[in-house]
Specification:
With about 80 residues, the protein is of the alpha+beta class. The protein has one helix at about 5-20, and strands spanning about 35, 45, 50-60, 65-70.
Length: about 80
């Protein structure tokens, strides 16, 4: 992945670990949002114009399960 995406990914991880996933909404550059369709129940954060991190969270143990970091292809793979 490109260097700028790696830097943003590192920041994303730091925010989630230190402040929790709800804090992503405080950073407009991430444009964190819920997904629909095949990805319903997951969320997406922008890492660049094309790259997204798709993740799922559970409140029970504050687990963040990263489904994919990819170049904006939301087709779910089995």
């Amino acid at each position: 992945m490109p260097r700028n995406v790696q830097v943003k990914w590192t920041l994303w991880v730091e925010v989630v670990l230190s402040e929790g996933p709800d804090a992503l909404n405080n950073y407009t550059g991430f444009k964190d949002e819920g997904l629909t369709g095949e990805w319903k129940g997951c969320r997406s954060s922008r890492l660049s114009g094309g790259y997204r991190v798709i993740y799922e969270r559970t409140d029970e143990a504050l687990v963040v399960k990263v489904e994919r970091v990819s170049n904006h292809d939301y087709k779910k793979r089995s």
